Amino acid sequence: MSQQQENSPQFILQSKIDNQKFTVDKSVMEASTLLKNICEITDITEPIIINCPGASLEFFISLIINENEQHNNLFKNFTSKNKKKLIKLVQDLCILDSDIFFNSAADYILGILQLKKGSTKNWNAIKEYFGFESDFTKKERKLIRESEKLEYLFSINTENFTFPFPNKSLYSLNTDFSTPMNILISRIIQRSNPQTSHLLSLINKTIKNEIDRYPIKLLEFLAYEHGWLLVLDRNFRQFLKFEKCNEIYFDVLKKRKAIASYKFKTCYDDGIPKHEIYGCNSSKFPISKNLEVSFSKTYKSMCNFDVTNIYSSSIDFMFYSFHEKTEIKFEEVYNHLIAKDLSNNIK
What we know:
Blueprint: H1 3-7, E1 11-15, E2 21-24, H2 26-30, H3 33-39, E3 48-50, H4 54-65, H5 71-79, H6 83-93, H7 99-112, H8 123-130, H9 138-145, H10 149-154, H11 183-191, H12 194-201, H13 205-211, E4 216-223, E5 227-233, E6 236-241, H14 247-256, E7 258-268, H15 274-279, E8 290-295, H16 301-304, E9 314-319, H17 330-338, E10 345-346
Helix pairs in contact: 7-11
């Protein structure tokens, strides 16, 4: 125990269910909105009674004390990978209103949804695990899967769908993992990867509405000379040309914004309209904190690239084969791509 922990005020938590008592320091109290509020008005010499089983309280304390360790192992050991035990733990500890617990539980559950090879269970398997109900008709599912696949991802109104879906609230969503205001489901949606997020949106209209409150999640976003390539997974790749008929998609991307979890790549050369390259990297349209910029046609394109128009905290510059034989000199790279903006992490 550190000197700071030894000098920290001590509190006693007591289970109202089985009277088990636990002595904790301020770090545990501050990890829960409920406990933090109680300790501000309670004499620290008095036990704080919590309507929660002692075993679950002990789990929460371990979770906070071991905040730098793998929380997944704590969940596995406590629940023995049993869904009913996990649900009981969630329902016991939701009273504490702890971001650390909800985030850790969400990450653990999202890990359960992943298959061994990195892929995700299909939407129907996810539906069964959570105990969700499906409210799409067979006709609607066919449209989402085939002719209106991109429109559904972007939530663009069609003759068949109007977004957001009316009278659908996350607070009233039925699920085996029910918590006040369904905060756990909300965290799962927020923290899901692009593939899982999309699969969740296919389950029912309520979840789709909640997902649409956040930026569009993509695996990859690649900006080329003639348009943008959007990659959601190996079965969902869509190239949007810079054409009038596709403006509606670009408008949605700029309004909703998007996150590319794996790669955001810009293939730069003098032939690409600058407003398209810098537009998708501007502060008004953030895609990812990490950006890869590749130069593959002419060496002089590097000199014309304006790094000050890029809004990313980390940039990877990649040089591929040029048409002309030339030597890439570090001094020129530094002057044109690094020195103009030293705030970025350049690789």
